[in-house]
Each structure stands twice: as C-alpha cells, then as structure tokens.
Amino acid sequence: MIVVIDPKSPTPPFEQLRAQVVEQTRAGSLAAGTRLPTVRRLAEDLGVAPGTVARAYRELEADGLIETRGRNGSFIRPQGDPGEQAVQEAARAYADRVLRLGVSPEQALAYARAALGA
After folding, report:
1. Where are the domains of the chain?
2. Is 116 left (phi over 0), alpha (psi -120 to 50) or beta?
3. Is 1-77 a CATH 1.20.140.10 domain?
4. Are 19 and 26 in contact (CB under 8 A)?
5. Among 23, 50, 52, 68, which is most buried by a count of CB atoms within 10 Å?
6. CA distances from 50 to 16, 44, 68 (A)
7. Does the keyword Ribosomal protein belong to this entry (predicted)?
C-alpha cells in the first residue's frame, strides 16, 4: 500500500488516507485479504498522529471496505456481489499458497491461465 499525505492540502489527513485506500481497492492494487499496516506503523510512516490513521480505518470499516480482526490486524474485505467476493477470496487463497510454495508470480499466473484455458 502506497499512501501519500499532503500536509498543504485542505483535505484532512484522515480523509486523504481513506480516499487513497478506497481508490487502491477499486483499482485492484489492494486485493481482498490484503493486510493493512498497523495504526501505529502507518502513522509513523506517514508522519501523522495514530488517531488520524485510526479514524480513517474506522471509517473504512464502517463503509465495509476493511475488517478488523482484533490483534490479527485490519484487512481489505472482498467487494461486489457474492460471486465476485468468492472469486476474490479464492484468488487470495491461491496467492497465499503460491507464496508459501515459493512459486514466482509469473509462473503462478501461467498456471492459472492454463487452468482457465483448460
């Protein structure tokens, strides 16, 4: 996740963060199941108060874009209709398994393309 806060912007920092997470999710660069940085870590990285990040995360959760799993952290939720959500969850499971097996992303995509073409 790449987020940039513009301190000169009239838009509050929490809203800049919230909007960028929404955009990255819609663009697909933040896939379902992606774990977000902790509030403290992201606040430190962005040079903002932890309350700023916590507010953005609360609003994202209220909008149904992320879910917080207690001490396990905050994650991007699957979006769309139930079928799309199931596909996003399957893609995340595949990606996690591929990474554990040490397969390169390029090879994993080749396997998926071959399976889809079969």
Report:
1. 1-77, 80-118
2. alpha
3. no
4. no
5. 52
6. 14, 8, 16
7. no
Contact by Cβ (8 Å): 34, 75: yes
Tens digit of each residue's pLDDT (9 = 90 or more) over 52-93? 999 999 999 999 999 999 889 999 999 888 998 899 899 999
Residue with tokens 């939720």: 77
Indicate the burial class of 85 (C-beta count within 10 angstroms; 0-12, 13-18, 19 or more).
middle
64-76 burial code (b ≥16 CB/10 A, e <16): ebbeeeeeeebbb
**How many C-beta neighbours within 10 Å does residue 47 have?**
10
pTM for the whole thing?
0.80
SS3 103: coil
